[in-house]
Amino acid sequence: MEASSPYDSAAAIVSAPVITQLASNQPALPNSRDISAATIKIPDPIMDPATIMVESKRLSPRLSPVALLTGVDWAGMIAMLTSVHEREGSQGSYGLVNFLKTWIGSFQEFLLLSGRAFTNLVRSPHYSDDIYLQMDIIGIGSVPVVLLTGFFTGGILALQMARALNQYGASNQVGTIVSLTLVRELGPVLTAILVAGRNASGMASELGSMKVTEQIDAMRALGTDPVQKLVTPRLIATALMLPCLTAISDTVGLVGAYLVSVPLLRIISGSEYWTSSWQALQLNDLTQGLIKPFLFGILIALIGCFYGMQTTGGTQGVGRATTSAVVSASIWIIAVTFLIDKIFVGL
Asked: Total domain count for the chain?
């Protein structure tokens, strides 16, 4: 009878489930029963490292010396966990790509709509009646809220500046500070935000209702360009009326500051107030105060019409489009203000 060799002992201590799993080249994780059955009981005497290495190579190329001793295919487990991690990472990357693709696609649609709206400025027909109607809605309709906002803004500025300047004995400079602040910044920005809240929401809700009720599709079926009929008149009206509204707001704001500074606080005479207010303004300030509302008007009209034209989902979609239009327009107004200020500060 032949004596048992160390190779036979090594083969006997490796359980059948583990050998089958390793031979099939599948990275499946053995269950607890297989692991317990595959636990190696080291015979006496313990095999030397050279013997373990030889046995691992003979049984399976994937069976390492550690697997021979422990009965667990650690390489397979690591490979499985790595593949799961890579799969989860790819899913996260796929979600990021989808997010960026949606945002870039929306921005592309906005640029296409803007290009078509500007192209229609030199194409016929121009729908003059719609332009006058929108000028009345956007311009005349916004006058009351602009008057109130401008008046109280000027009064608040005069109150705050009078208190601050009085500490340095410069109360007579209140007219200068109020005029520069209103004409450069607060007048255009506050007026644009008010018009965005009032008219950008109106454009988005009106066009959104037409979109969900398929009225825009009916216009296309009848041979009418919806952009030329609905977007371009609103673009022209807003770009023309917002500078006028800003000028009204600035003027009323100066009047409000005058009433606070002269009759109420009596820190400056009327003639000195108006003289300092007018002399403080330069051509750069007036240009800046008129370019801003013109650009704001273009942004407000395009953003409101864009969200209206992209509305889906019925009445809930109209509400979402209205909210998105106001938020986006307000953010773009602040961002464009910073860019314009950066340009004019360098002049």
From this structure: 2
